[in-house]
Amino acid sequence: MRQGGVLLALLLTVLLHSACSGLAGEPQQLATLTPPPRARADLSNGARIFAERCSTCHGLTGAGDGELALNGSIPAPGDFTQPWAARNQAPLQWLGTVRDGRIEALMPPWRDSLTEGELRDVTLYSYTLHYSASQIARGQQVLEDACASGCAALDALGDLRDPATLDRLSDADLRDALPKSLNADDAWAAVAWLRARDLRGQERAGQPWATPAPVSGVIRGRIRSGSQGFEAPGRLKVTLLEFGTGTMPELRETRSAADGSFRFEELTLAAGRSYSVLVEHAGRRFPSARVAADPARAQIDLPVTIFETGADSSAIEMTALVQQVSLEDDALQVVVVARFRNASDRVYSSEDEVAPGQYASLILPLPAGVSDLTLPDESGRFLVDLEAGTVTDTLPVYPGVDHMLQLAWRQPRGRDGHLLELPLKYALTGEVRLLPGPGLALADERFTAIGPQRVGASFFDGYRAQLRLEPGERLSYTLHEQAPALPPGVIGVEALALGALVTVTLVIVMLRRRNGGDGERRRVDELARQIARLDEEHERGAINHDVYRRRRAALQAQLTGGYDGGDEGAN
C-alpha cells in the first residue's frame, strides 16, 4: 500500500489539548492572515509553557523525544534542535501552526488554551531552540564587521528591531539579505543574533541558550493508588529512565519501600537531560511524568500513580474520530485516527496475555473486505487477525488519559456508490470528521461541510458531526464519485479528449451511413444512442466513472469495428 505520509495526515482537532506535535512543516494558515504581534516575546515564559504543554510529544529539549512519541502513541514530531526545522518558515507561520494546529500531523490548536502573548512566547522559544549562546555571540561580531559600511539589502527588509517586521521574515529571508561574501556558519550566526538580540528572558543566564554546569543530585518519589479500595503494595520494581538529546535512555532499577517511597542517588543532573520512572505492577507498567533536569536544583520529585486492572468495556468511549478516504486505482484507501477515554478509575486491560508480557486491551473490529492493513507502530503493540477481522491493541488505556489509535487499509470500490462502515465495539460520543478525497462527495444530512482541509500537499473536503452511537452499532455513510472541480475557464484534459472522441465518432457515423445499408445504419444509430445515454448518465453522476469509461470504450470499439465480442458493454 502506497502510504507515504498518509498515517500522519489526520488531526483530531477536537479535544487534543494534552499534546503538541509536528510544528516543523508548512502551516495550515497563511502568515498574511495572522495579525502581527507587537510585544517582544518572553523566552522564560515560553520555556515554562513548552515544558508544561508540549514536552510530552516534543521532549523537554525539543528534540522530538517526548514520552508520547517514544511509546508510539503519536508519530515522530519535529526535532526543533535542528536548524532545518525552522529556517524556511517565518515566526508568524510558526505561530499560525501553534495557534490553529496542523491537520496532517496530529497537532492540536492552542488558541483556546493560551493567550495571544503566551502563544507568541512559546512560538519564539520553540523557533529559536536550534540557536546556541556561542553562535549568537559570534553573530553580533560578524554583523558588525560585515555591515560596518552598511548592508543595503538588510536595510530594505525594514526595521529589524520591530517585532512585527522581524516576525514576517524567515531565517532564510534574513540570510539572503546578508552579504554573499559571508560563509554559511557566519551568516547563520548573524541571523541568530538578529533574531535573538531583543527577546526577553535570555538575559537571565542567557536563557534558553546557556548551558549551566551539572550538579550531583537525587531523584525520589512515592507510589500511590489511583483506584478506589486499592492500596499500593510495597517492594515494587521501579526503573529510572535518564534521557539525553537524541539518545536511548539509560536505565537504573530499585525497589520501593513498604510505604511506596523510592530513591535514586548520586545522579549527575545536567541541562538537556530529563527523567521519568516506570513502576511495574500486575504485569503492567505505570509511568511518571517526565521532568527536565534543572542544575539549579539538586532534587527531582517523580511521584507515580498505579491502578488496579479492569476490563469493563462500558468505561471506554471513543471521543473523537477522523476518517480520510481516497480513490486509489481500483480500491479505496481509508485512514482512521481515533481517540479513546477511560472513564473508570482502573487501567483498562484484560487478563488475556496475547504475547509474553502483553495483554489485550482495546479490540477494534474491521470492515469487510479490508486488505493491506497498515499500522503506525512496528514494535509489536498491535496484533492483527484478518480472518476474525480485528486489531488488538496491547497498550493499556489509563484513566483520564487520551488513548490514540491510527490505522489504514484498502477496501474494494463500490459500483454506483461507496458504502463505508466502521463497526463499533465501544460507544462513540463526540465529533466525527470525514475527509473525502478528490473525486468523492458526501451527501449525509448528519454532517456539516467545513470547507477544504489540507492534508500534506493535497486538499480534502471536510465534514463534521456530533454523533452518539452505541456499542455494536456501525458508523455508516456513502460516498459518490464526481468529477473534480476545475477553476473557471479551465478545461480538463478528459473533457478535451472526450470532445475529440465525439468528433471522430461523428465522422465515422457519417461515413458508415454513406457507405452502409439500412441494417448497418440502424446498428450505428443504436450504438450512437447508447453512447449518448451513457454520456448523459455520467454527466448526472448516476454511473461510476470507471464503469462509464469501460462501457464507453466497448461501445466505441463496436462503432469503429474494433470490438471483439466480449461482454464489457453489459457491466
Describe the SSE topology.
Layout: H1 43-58, H2 67-70, H3 91-100, H4 116-127, H5 133-146, H6 152-155, H7 163-166, H8 171-177, H9 184-196, E1 215-225, E2 237-243, E3 250-255, E4 261-269, E5 274-281, E6 284-287, E7 291-292, E8 299-301, E9 304-306, E10 309-310, E11 316-328, E12 331-342, E13 347-348, E14 353-355, E15 358-359, E16 363-365, E17 371-374, E18 382-385, E19 390-393, E20 403-412, E21 418-423, E22 427-436, E23 440-442, E24 448-455, E25 458-469, E26 474-481, H10 493-515, H11 518-539, H12 545-560
Parallel strand pairs: 1-8, 1-9, 10-13, 11-22
Antiparallel strand pairs: 1-4, 2-3, 2-5, 5-6, 5-7, 11-12, 12-20, 14-15, 16-19, 17-20, 18-19, 21-26, 22-25, 23-26, 24-25
Helix pairs in contact: 1-4, 3-4, 5-9, 10-11, 11-12
Question: Which characteristics define this entry?
Answer:
single chain; 571 residues; alpha+beta; 7-stranded mixed sheet; 5-stranded antiparallel sheet; 12 helices; 25% helix; 28% strand; disordered N terminus; disordered C terminus
Give an overview in words.
This protein is α+β, with helices and mostly antiparallel strands and 571 residues long. Helices cover 25% and strands 28% of the residues. Strands 17-20-12-11-22-25-24 form a 7-stranded mixed sheet, with no helix packed on it. Strands 2, 3, 5, 6 and 7 form a 5-stranded antiparallel sheet that branches. The chain starts with 42 loop residues before the first helix and ends in an 11-residue tail after the last helix.
Query: For the residues shown, what is the average pLDDT?
Result: 79
Strand order of the largest sheet: 17-20-12-11-22-25-24
User: What is the percentage of strand-forming residues?
Assistant: 25-35%
Per DSSP, the total helix count is 12
Residue share in helices?
25-40%
Largest sheet: 7 strands, mixed
Which structural class fits the helix and strand makeup? alpha+beta
Shape: flat
Give me the count of strands. 26
CA-based gyration radius: 30 Å
First-to-last CA distance: 28 Å
Unreliable runs: 1-38, 486-504, 562-571
